[in-house]
Amino acid sequence: MRKLLLTLVTMGILLLPSGKVRAQVRLSHLRCENLLAPIGLDVARPRFSWQLQAPSNRRGVRQTPYELQVAASDAGLARGRATVWQSGKVASDSSVHVTYAGPALTASRRYYWRVRVWDNTGKPSAWSATTYWQTGLLASTNWRAAWIGPGYPEDSVQRPSPLLRKEFTIAKPVSIGHGLRHSPRLVRSPNQWSARGRCLPHARLDEI
Fold it and tell me: Is 10 domain-assigned?
């Protein structure tokens, strides 16, 4: 009995510190150029931001190093493969406007990213949730479309907004870009629009 009691007392002493294990810092509010999962971003070197969320029983928690990963797919990041860029462990407490420093980005492409940090006790956080941003047209050479005009001299006094309309027939599956009014049967894909003044793109699919 004395041996058993001594063993239990010893186990209680050994387990006591484990009850005070420090909980991990969590990361939230991931932003790219201050936006949540932006689409059509025309920034060649986007900036990332995140917020630390410390457990309620911890005070004075701060970030020391951080590490960023960027990949061409969320599945790649889930497997731990940063196929586009990996910052490595960077000794910095910065968590606002951390600049992308990887290879040149491709226009009209979606990139996925995540981050983890180390706190001031040297303990790493888990990787954040994966989020993304999608590039727009990064250079004038990315434009492949022609400008559309009203076809008559512009009124420089009244400056009315012309209605430009074009009807055509297509035989292939239809994809409509983000931000357009579309039928639920249509699939979204990135499209770029630009205009001088007011522009409201609108697409309609008529039954045949």
Answer: no
CA 186/CA 166 separation, integer angstroms: 19
pLDDT at 162: 73
Backbone angles phi, psi at 45, to 5 degrees: -125, 80
What are the tens digits of pLDDT across the range 87-112?
999 999 999 999 999 999 999 999 99
* CA–CA separation, 150 and 163 (whole Å): 8
pLDDT at 199: 63
Measured distance CA(3)–CA(35) in Å, rounded: 63
Q: Which domain holds residue 182?
A: 163-191+199-208
Does the pTM exceed 0.70?
no
Token pair for residue 197? 């003044």
Find residue 116's DSSP bridge partners. 67
